[in-house]
Amino acid sequence: MPLLDYFASLNPLNLIKSFPASISQGLIWGIMAIGVYITFRLLDVADLTVDGSFTTGGACAVMLILAGWPAWAALIVAFFAGVLAGLTTGLLHTKLGIPAILAGILTQFALYSVNLHIMGMASNKSLNPDKYRLLLTSRRIPSAILVGALLTLVLVMILYWYFGTEQGSALRATGNNPAMSRAQGINIDRMKVIGLALSNGIVALSGGLMAQYQSFSDINMGRGAIVIGLAAVIIGEVLGEAILGKRLNFFGRLAFIAVGGVIYYLVVSVVLWLKLDSNDLKLFTAVIVAVFLAIPYLKRQAHTSFRSAAKRAAKEKGGEENA
Predict the structure, then answer these.
(1) What angle, 0 to 180 degrees and rounded to 10, lies between the N-to-C axes of helices 141-162 and 188-214?
(2) If pLDDT is split at 50, 70 and 90, which confidence band does 306 have?
(3) What are residue 125's DSSP bridge partners?
(4) Helix, strand, or coil here: 46?
(5) How far from 281 is each of 79, 200, 269, 285, CA to CA, in Å?
(6) Residue 4, Cβ neighbours under 10 Å: how many?
(7) Greatest CA separation found in the chain?
(8) How far apart are CA 136 and CA 61, in angstroms?
């Protein structure tokens, strides 16, 4: 197809119409990204449990709703199921000395079978939005955006309060400087377990929301979740620092991470609108993550190079004046 004909076939209205659905999904993934942020940034731990715990949350939510539970109660159980998954990873890491990344892989691997058992050994389970009262569904996008935004705001407020408490501050200190934290009497192993449990609880909560939104749970619904979460974290951090700079506090950082999930899905909608192969989405995601990961480093390198050049120029000027 000639290039001009290709661009002529793209309808901007179709792109605009896809934005609300992307925003509603992005808010759910933004909640998941907040969970990833707790381990990736606050604990400085590479946790791969999330690919499994996301599915665990979706499986628990769907099965409980099918059993007659209210959607909100199913989400609470999904959260605690994720907490147990994170607790498992934490104990494998702290009590058995298994490196965090391997502990996460082991738990994720085991969760595949656990999730199959939760769903009655079926690879997927469906929900009928007309039969069950769900908190949000893709059939009612405006309502889904409202519920997603409210849940995100409540979660950010709770986490902002929690990480201002003594235990929350100890958890942040553990990731920032483990040696100093231990010297101050903080049980860093306990903090790691708590952080991993909280992180995966939030991830499972978002999995339960996603299962309700798409009206089904699937054994592979969490595949690649860690990459999407990292993309949202990096996009949110870069955007927040670009807009607020040094005024970006912890509350704002959490909020921008949720916004990062929305922006990621808006980019995905643009990719789909451009009629690029949807099978290449993971490639595009990897490129997006790599670019945003590189931006802070390149900015520091450019700033360092600029300062070095300024110092050299000042020395050369001083040498000329002395001569």
Answers:
(1) 170
(2) low
(3) 217
(4) coil
(5) 28, 25, 10, 6
(6) 8
(7) 89
(8) 13
Each domain of the chain, given as residue ranges in start order, spans: 22-222
Q: What are the tens digits of pLDDT across the range 154-164?
A: 999 999 999 99
Helix (H) or strand (E) holding 102: helix 100-118
Asked whether residue 193 carries a pLDDT value surpassing 90, the answer given is yes
- The pLDDT tens digits of the residues spanning 21-76 come to 999 999 999 999 999 999 999 998 889 999 999 999 999 999 999 999 999 999 99
Give the Cα separation of 173 and 178 in Å (integer): 7
Distances (CA, A) of 70 to 74, 132, 164, 195, 201: 6, 9, 32, 28, 19
Structure-token pair, residue 71: 């959607």
Q: Give the dihedral sign, CA 114/120/121/123.
A: negative
- The values of phi and psi at residue 80, to 5°, are -70, -25
Q: Which two tokens stand for residue 48?
A: 């791969």
What is the reported pLDDT for 88? 96
Type of residue found at 84: L
Residue type, 269: S
Question: What distance lies between CA 21 and its chain's CA centroid?
Answer: 18
Which residues, in sequence order, are bridge partners of residue 124? 218
Contact 235, 292 (CB under 8 A): yes
* E strand or H helix at 280: none
The Cα 116–Cα 179 span in angstroms is 41
Q: Identify any residues that bridge with 217 across adjacent strands, giving them in sequence order.
A: 125
Q: Is 217 helix (H, G, I), strand (E, B) or coil?
A: strand
Nearest to 198 by CA among 155, 151, 262: 155
**Cα 45–chain centre separation:** 14
H or E element at residue 120 = none
* Amino acid letter, residue 167: Q
d(CA 12, CA 282): 24
